[in-house]
Design brief:
Layout (H helix, E strand, L loop, with lengths): L3 E4 L6 E4 L7 E6 L5 E5 L9 E3 L5 E5 L1 H4 L2 E4 L5 E5 L17
Length: 100
């Protein structure tokens, strides 16, 4: 479940996230079957940029690129989930088993 969503109206470049000089990371996930092209710091256009093609496709944007405005373009009306909070990533260490 995303923290927020946006549904594009289709046919032109639309803002998904405004620029934010304090943002370090976010994840966008396509929640419907309508493909969308993404652009960062510029208008989005058909057949250019990063393509989220099917429901469940996602992109994680980090660092300076995450601070730029994110725009989307689609010929349809896709819904995109947005998660902008920081996260915790758990990585277990190697398994150690007692030797006896």
């Amino acid at each position: 479940m995303a923290a927020s969503t946006v549904t594009l109206t289709g046919g032109s470049s639309e803002e998904i996230l405004a620029a934010d000089p304090n943002r370090d990371v976010y994840v966008l996930q396509l929640q419907t079957q309508e493909p969308v092209y993404l652009a960062f710091g510029e208008d989005a256009a058909d057949a250019t940029g990063i393509l989220l093609r099917v429901a469940g496709d996602s992109v994680k944007v980090c660092g300076p690129k995450a601070r730029e405005q994110c725009n989307g373009y689609s010929g349809d009306t896709p819904t995109i989930g947005i998660e902008t909070v920081e996260y915790i990533e758990y990585r277990p260490g190697p398994n150690e088993f007692p030797t006896s």
